Amino acid sequence: MTNNLPIGVFDSGVGGLTVAKEIMLRLPKESLLYFGDTARVPYGNKSEETVITYSRQIARFLCSHEVKAIVIACNTASAFALDTLAAEFPVPVIGVVKPGAKAAAAKTAKGRIGVIATSGTIKSGLYERYLASINPELKVFGKACPLFVPLVEEGLTSDSVTKMMAERYLTPLLSEGIDALVLGCTHYPLLTDVIGEVCGPGVALVNPAYETAKELSELLSEKNLLKTDDTPAAHRFFVSDGEEQFRRFADTILPCELEEADVNRMVLS
Q: How far apart are alpha carbons 135 and 145 in whole angstroms?
């Protein structure tokens, strides 16, 4: 039955595991098929055309394994490729940008929202456009934070260097009087503590990974695609490079440990 097929999830690398984690916690019966494009990470500095090409390749791979929905667990790919994939593939496709934007619009009291993300996501202007479609009165202030991803991947989430960079990146946004901040890259929820410390209690942090899992649950329910049998969830993970590094990173994030056989290498072309 279609209901019992896995959910496809993909990201430019390991950051999308924060989305996978939230899906596992919200939908514990569902199986995931995850693809991390670790050989071609990052997507944030690549052109729109290139990101769409990579996203198409991954979506084809996921559909070849019969997934019932696709989650683009990458802000840059969501910004550039969501509409293309939704039009070209026969399963529901959602990204992380719209759920995060909707949550930010709901949480701001002053109508002043900050967005931190990769250069590609900020340049796309997608958060600004979508927030304007919700409420044209909202003021949106974007800031690219390119060093956050390597700091996370080096395990420096609590390091003094990370706090220093957070202060440098966030001070211009705080000076604009924001009261909501979208963590617009899937790595950034892993920096929630340091970002929250720098921003203070007057700024609501919005985690698009959490909001995406919530929206996915609602989508599957609306389309009658929630899993119906009682077999345990079975997750599979594919990467385009660096299986061992991916597995180590995943074991620090996911609510389950990965066995060596759970991560497979698949190079797309």
A: 26
CA dist 192 → 34, 60, 162, 251 (Å) = 24, 33, 12, 19
User: CB–CB of 39/241 below 8 Å?
Assistant: yes
Amino acid identity, residue 105? Answer: A
- Picking from 127, 253, 255, 245, the residue whose alpha carbon sits closest to that of residue 263 is 245
Q: What residue ranges define each of the domains in the chain, with the CATH number in brackets?
A: 2-95+210-265 (3.40.50.1860), 98-209 (3.40.50.1860)
Q: Which residues are catalytic?
A: 74, 185
Q: Which H helix or E strand runs over 24?
A: helix 17-26
CA 227/CA 237 separation, integer angstroms: 20
- pLDDT (tens, 9 = 90+) of the chain, 269 residues, equals 689 999 999 999 889 999 999 999 999 999 999 999 999 988 888 999 999 999 999 999 999 999 999 999 998 899 899 999 999 999 999 999 999 999 999 999 999 999 999 888 898 888 999 999 999 999 999 999 999 988 988 888 989 999 999 999 999 999 999 999 999 999 999 999 999 999 999 999 999 999 999 999 999 999 999 999 889 999 999 999 989 889 988 988 898 877 766 788 888 86
- 92: tokens are 């529901």
Q: Which amino acid is at 150?
A: P
Q: Which residues pair with 239 in a beta bridge?
A: 36, 265
